[in-house]
């Protein structure tokens, strides 16, 4: 941060870095065919461009480079330039007229094996209000969205905080370097109906409820029959011996 | 042990509780038809036939383009019975032949031959025919009895018994690869004649033996077109090139020759570029046709000709010009020719079908009835007696409703007068006073008139009081339950239907609407802005060229409005209705063309000014499903637009199937849900949220998937991205409030499943006062759950109420024609696997993977709706009540009460009891007050 050479545009390269990687491991089917090679893959970079003009006609310039590293866990890091003096004043001017700050990235595939297959043309663009970028002191969150096979399908940029309150940013230093958080989001798998768990739960409930009741009910219901049967057996067995005497004893 | 036992006891208790809560829909027997109605339609008539040639016969048989065979009551136009076959070419009706009690139909390009009993509409028999495309069919009879039917296909002819459908014989046609066989004819003899043409070469007639299907002989002739059989087995053809009629006696044993009769010799001339057509009649299939026949010489020129007894000369009988349609009808020994001539030349409706029924009256004179099918799909039945009159009209265009809206009815004159007083601009104190006085006088007048009417009607017997709805008596009821349904049909005919009774109040036919046009109906001004009339705009877009036209009309009276329309020279990509209103309270409609320029309608100065001020906050999106792109634009001050975001879904992986936003009229009453621990879970209520559904291009059952993307329509930010594996369409989904419900086919388990997504901001709101897509940095929490649904579905919609307090139900259209009202409570991703204190506090139903279908949830009890296509919901003035219209082949209107009628007193409410209790209490208070006063006074004296 010490290097703040005002007149030299690109001499001071402060790499504000990196973030993140949401794992793809959960959701890839046909993509991961050459697993063994992935770890050796060196990665590639694509430019992240931005545009902010007072007249709102977009003129994209390089803001930084996205370092994509394919592999078991796709990681993306961002190295970006500082804003020059000229850029800072333009940005403030754009913010004053409530202009837009746009970014764009080329359409690429994040997965390594697809990357070389077929170059895609076109860009994915997103925007944020320039005033919110200024007021948040260039702290933004850039999110890259991919589809199931790893193609980039969208990019989004938000600033934190996101509101424009019209507060004046006095300190030029605040607008020098981006404080960027970079996310990569792949589609989540929507849940299937949870039949297995439900059946398990039902079984457990049945066990809890059913078994003791059944055991109890068998004896509870039929104890008099069993008892009666036993008495009858006893009576009939004793009746074979002296008849009549047993009956009198019973009563 | 103890808590679990307690829980086990609670589960059935809970189940009973929810059962009680949810049973609300079933209709009592005496309520049937009280709040609901159904209209059944058949579609555009292709074939029609009358029952028997007597005046008393009431039956009329029609086969339609919607693959329906139906019987209509010719007195009233009501349906006796109706058979709905499969949609598409598989069930298409090729021909309908009626003979006495049997109605024969060939279906699905010669796939099936069916015989129906015309009395009760039962199926006698059905046989599967050999493959080959259908050409023609006819009855074959000998000695005045019809026993067989001949079916001519492209390559074969077969003969079937009429009694059981069994095949008598089938023969391959000779040279069927070069000869195009067109017609089959039998004149009551032992022979069956088949007519074939070899294009640009010659004509062949093959004669088969009725007994065993042997070829008796073959006759060839010159190249001709439009042939019919006239008189005693004379083939009559007309040729445009030589301008001549050709006759051939086909029954002659020895080789017959064609005889040429030049049209010039009969003083006839064919119109320019017109292919002449012959029309003849064969009153009974076992007898030969009549010698009289029609020759059409031009689009509106017909001539009636007669062939002499020996078949040698042709004599013109009468010339009909102008005449669009001709037809024959026979009763007993008499045959009449009917000719339809336009009364005035301005009538531009084309009449594609004319069916005449002639019958003998008691005095042996001939009476006629005519069934006319017009181009606007109306079916009119006319009685031609001493005085012609239209007996009934069926609006069959309503069998294919494309889109609809419900519009509030206007206020009554007196209400409107009061409203108008507030609407007008203030202009001084004295005029205001005068206005007030005048409106009070008008009110008084209206009241007096009402009293007089009451008094007058009270003296008349009740049956005489007419309670019919007419366009003049239309006015809003107390709870706004009666509305005007504006329906747009595929044929381009618009209808205004009273929602209470189903009466058609107005209709308007839009001419020159292409058959593949897409319609979008927009309510620009509601009825709430008296004295400005309500205004609807119909955007008609040609699907091929993308060019659009606007039709602006008053939805209450159907009259076209005189507003000047904007010129739309370029294809229209998107239309959006802004909340911006002009000085006449009409909402502004923006139309985006293919150069991303925007046209505003209405484009008054006021609107333009507002648009320029708001331009930077007007965003719109475009979807290109072929390229897989979703792009966002922002309006500029000069009404051009700039691209601000782009999301691209590669079409190699998945294609966009549908994009849906939320309904702008929807109200959400509660911002969050109170959870078991008394904290609040706030809903993510983004009005700009779009639900984008995709399907994978790979259709293999293991790899197929359905994608659900939630995209912010302003910033293009993907809020949520989920993939349903092993699933494919068709996808039906509803997007409302903070949830999306979708239904798909699970390819692995081979069943239909429902999935619900709910979005929450969490326990704290980011900005509770206003929602802005530009300032919402945190992504919402997304909860999702899936369920098995035991039936496929055809369409889905959510109920809508005035303020959104009433709980929501999903209206699910099933292929059986029933509409299921499924409580949203069952589709709640927070349904717990294991019940605990909190979930019980919240009234969450424990999770069960299968969604129940209870028969008492069917809102249309036994009133099934064939080929249900869409469900429309509209709020009424009562918070508890939601109006529902389901349309497909039939139209069904009803009301639903998702939370029961909590704001309505029951029908059997005991007014006497409550008022007597009130009075008793009142008097008791009075008396006790008096007594207390006396007692106090006594105490004071003591």
Structural write-up:
The complex is a heterodimer of chains A (251) and B (942). Chain A has 251 residues and is α+β, with helices and mostly antiparallel strands. In chain A, 31% of the residues lie in helices and 25% in strands. Chain A has six helices and nine strands, in the order H-E-E-E-H-E-H-E-H-E-E-E-E-H-H. Chain A has helices spanning 35-38, 85-96, 112-115, 130-135, 195-240, 245-250, and strands at residues 44-51, 61-69, 75-80, 100-106, 123-129, 139-146, 152-159, 179-185, 188-189. In chain A, the strands form two sheets. In chain A, strands 3-2-1-4-5 form a five-stranded antiparallel β-sheet. In chain A, strands 7-6-8 form a three-stranded mixed β-sheet, with no helix packed on it. Chain A is rod-shaped, with a radius of gyration of 37 Å. The model of chain A is unreliable at 1-41 and 243-251 (pLDDT under 50). Chain B has 942 residues and is mainly beta. In chain B, 12% of the residues lie in helices and 43% in strands. In chain B, helix 2 runs antiparallel to helix 3. Chain B is globular, with a radius of gyration of 35 Å. Classes of the chains: A alpha+beta (251), B mainly beta (942). Strand 9 (188-189) of chain A pairs parallel with strand 50 of chain B. Chain A: It is found in: Endoplasmic reticulum membrane. Chain A: This is ER membrane protein complex subunit 10. Chain A: Belongs to the EMC10 family. Chain A: Keywords: Endoplasmic reticulum, Membrane, Signal, Transmembrane, Transmembrane helix.
């Amino acid at each position: 941060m010490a290097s703040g050479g005002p007149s030299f545009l690109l001499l001071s390269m402060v790499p504000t870095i990196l973030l993140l990687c949401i794992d793809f491991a959960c959701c890839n089917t046909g993509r991961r065919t050459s697993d063994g090679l992935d770890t050796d893959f060196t990665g590639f970079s694509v430019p992240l461009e931005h545009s902010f003009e007072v007249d709102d006609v977009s003129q994209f310039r390089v803001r930084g480079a996205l370092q994509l590293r394919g592999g078991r866990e796709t990681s993306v890091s961002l190295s970006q330039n500082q804003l020059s003096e000229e850029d800072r004043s333009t940005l403030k001017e754009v913010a004053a007229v409530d202009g837009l700050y746009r970014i764009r990235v080329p359409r690429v595939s994040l997965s390594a094996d697809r990357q070389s297959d077929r170059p895609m043309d076109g860009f994915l663009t997103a925007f944020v209000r320039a005033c919110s970028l200024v007021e948040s002191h260039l702290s933004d969150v850039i999110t890259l969205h991919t589809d199931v096979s790893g193609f980039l399908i969208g990019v989004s940029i938000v600033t934190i905080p996101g509101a424009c309150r019209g507060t004046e940013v006095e300190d030029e230093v605040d607008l020098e370097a981006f404080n960027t958080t970079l996310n990569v989001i792949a589609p989540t798998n929507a849940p299937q109906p949870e039949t297995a768990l439900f059946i398990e739960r039902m079984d457990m409930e049945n066990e809890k409820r059913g078994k003791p009741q059944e055991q109890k009910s068998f004896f509870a219901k039929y104890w008099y029959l069993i008892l009666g049967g036993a008495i009858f057996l006893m009576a009939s067995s004793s009746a074979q011996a002296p008849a009549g005497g047993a009956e009198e004893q019973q009563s | 042990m103890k808590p679990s036992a307690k829980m086990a006891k609670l589960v059935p208790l809970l189940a009973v509780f929810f059962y009680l809560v949810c049973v609300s829909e079933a209709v009592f027997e005496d309520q049937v038809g009280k709040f609901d109605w159904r209209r059944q339609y058949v579609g555009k008539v292709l074939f029609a036939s009358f029952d028997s040639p007597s005046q008393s016969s009431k039956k009329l048989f029609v086969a339609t383009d919607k693959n329906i065979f139906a019987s209509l009551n010719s007195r009233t136009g009501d349906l006796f019975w109706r058979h709905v076959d499969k949609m598409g070419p598989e069930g298409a009706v090729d021909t309908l032949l009626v003979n006495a009690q049997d109605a024969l139909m060939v279906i699905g390009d010669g796939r099936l031959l069916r015989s129906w009993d015309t009395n009760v509409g039962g199926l006698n028999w059905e046989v599967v025919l050999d493959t080959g495309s259908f050409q023609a069919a006819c009855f074959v009879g000998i000695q005045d009895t019809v026993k067989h039917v001949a079916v001519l296909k492209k390559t074969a002819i077969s003969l079937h018994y009429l009694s059981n459908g069994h095949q008598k014989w089938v023969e391959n046609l000779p040279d069927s690869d070069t000869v195009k066989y067109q017609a089959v004819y039998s004149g009551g003899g032992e022979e069956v004649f088949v007519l074939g043409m070899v294009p640009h070469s010659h004509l062949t007639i093959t004669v088969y033996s009725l007994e065993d299907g042997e070829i008796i002989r073959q006759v060839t002739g010159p190249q001709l077109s439009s042939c019919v059989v006239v008189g005693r087995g004379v083939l009559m053809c007309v040729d445009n090139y030589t301008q001549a009629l050709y006759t051939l006696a086909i029954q002659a044993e020895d080789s017959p020759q064609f005889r040429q009769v030049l049209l010039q010799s009969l003083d006839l001339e064919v119109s320019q570029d017109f292919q002449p057509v012959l029309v003849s009649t064969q009153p009974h299939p076992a007898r030969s046709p009549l010698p009289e026949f029609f020759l059409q010489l031009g689009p509106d020129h017909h001539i009636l000709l007669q062939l002499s007894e020996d078949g040698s000369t042709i004599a013109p009988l009468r010339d009909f010009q102008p005449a669009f349609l001709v037809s024959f009808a026979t009763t007993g020994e008499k045959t009449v020719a009917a000719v339809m001539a336009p009364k005035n030349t301005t009538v531009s409706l084309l009449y594609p079908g004319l069916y005449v029924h002639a019958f003998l009256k008691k005095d042996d004179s001939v009476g006629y009835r005519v069934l006319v099918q017009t181009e606007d799909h109306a079916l009119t039945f006319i009685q031609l007696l001493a005085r012609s009159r239209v007996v009934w009209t069926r609006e069959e265009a309503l069998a294919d409703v494309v889109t609809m809206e419900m519009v509030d009815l206007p206020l009554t004159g007196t209400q409107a007068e009061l409203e108008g007083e507030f609407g007008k601009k203030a202009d001084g104190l004295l005029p205001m006073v005068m206005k007030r006085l005048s409106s009070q006088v008008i009110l008084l007048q209206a009241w007096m008139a009402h009293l007089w009417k009451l008094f007058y009607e009270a003296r008349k017997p009740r049956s005489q009081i007419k309670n019919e709805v007419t366009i003049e008596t239309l006015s809003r009821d107390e709870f706004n339950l009666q509305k005007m349904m504006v329906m747009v049909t595929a044929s381009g005919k618009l209808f205004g239907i009273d929602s209470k009774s189903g009466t058609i109040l107005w209709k308007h036919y839009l001419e020159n609407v292409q058959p593949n046009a897409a319609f979008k109906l927009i309510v620009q001004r509601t009825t709430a802005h008296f004295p400005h009339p309500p205004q609807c705009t119909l955007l008609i877009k040609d699907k091929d060229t993308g060019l659009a036209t606007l039709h602006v009309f008053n939805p209450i009276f159907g009259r076209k409005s005189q507003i000047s329309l904007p010129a739309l020279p370029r294809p229209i990509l998107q239309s959006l209705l802004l909340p911006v209103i002009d000085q006449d309270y009409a909402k502004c409609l923006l139309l985006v063309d293919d150069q991303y320029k925007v046209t505003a309608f209405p484009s008054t100065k006021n609107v333009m000014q507002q648009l320029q001020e708001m331009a930077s906050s007007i965003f719109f999106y475009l979807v290109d499903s072929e390229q897989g792109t979703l792009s966002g634009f922002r309006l500029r001050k000069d009404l051009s637009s700039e691209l601000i975001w782009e999301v691209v879904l590669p079409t190699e992986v998945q294609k966009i199937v549908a994009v849906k936003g939320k309904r702008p009229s929807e109200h959400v009453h509660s911002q969050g849900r109170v959870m078991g621990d008394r904290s609040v879970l706030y809903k993510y209520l983004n009005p700009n949220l779009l639900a984008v559904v995709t399907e994978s291009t790979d259709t293999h059952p293991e790899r197929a998937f359905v994608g659900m993307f939630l995209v912010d329509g302003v910033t293009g930010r993907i809020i949520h991205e989920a993939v349903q594996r092993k699933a494919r369409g068709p996808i039906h989904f509803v997007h409302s409030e903070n949830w999306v419900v979708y239904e798909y086919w699970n390819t692995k388990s081979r069943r239909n499943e429902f999935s619900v997504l709910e979005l929450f901001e969490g326990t704290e709101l980011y900005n509770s006062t206003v929602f802005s897509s530009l300032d919402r940095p945190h992504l919402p929490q997304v909860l999702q759950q899936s369920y098995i649904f035991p039936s496929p579905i055809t369409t889905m919609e959510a109920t809508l109420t005035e303020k959104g307090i009433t709980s929501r139900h999903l209206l699910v259209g099933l292929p059986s024609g029933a509409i299921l009202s499924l409580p949203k409570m069952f589709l709640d991703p927070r349904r717990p696997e294991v019940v605990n204190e909190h979930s019980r506090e919240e009234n969450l139903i424990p999770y069960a993977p299968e969604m129940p279908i209870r028969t008492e949830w069917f809102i249309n009890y036994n009133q099934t709706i064939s080929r249900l296509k869409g469900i429309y919901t509209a709020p009424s003035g009562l918070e508890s009540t939601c109006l529902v219209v389901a349309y497909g082949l039939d139209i069904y209107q009803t009301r639903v009460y998702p939370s029961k009628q909590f704001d309505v007193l029951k029908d059997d409410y005991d007014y006497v009891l409550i008022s007597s209790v009130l009075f008793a209490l009142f008097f008791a208070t009075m008396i006790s007050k008096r007594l207390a006063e006396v007692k106090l006074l006594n105490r004071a004296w003591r």
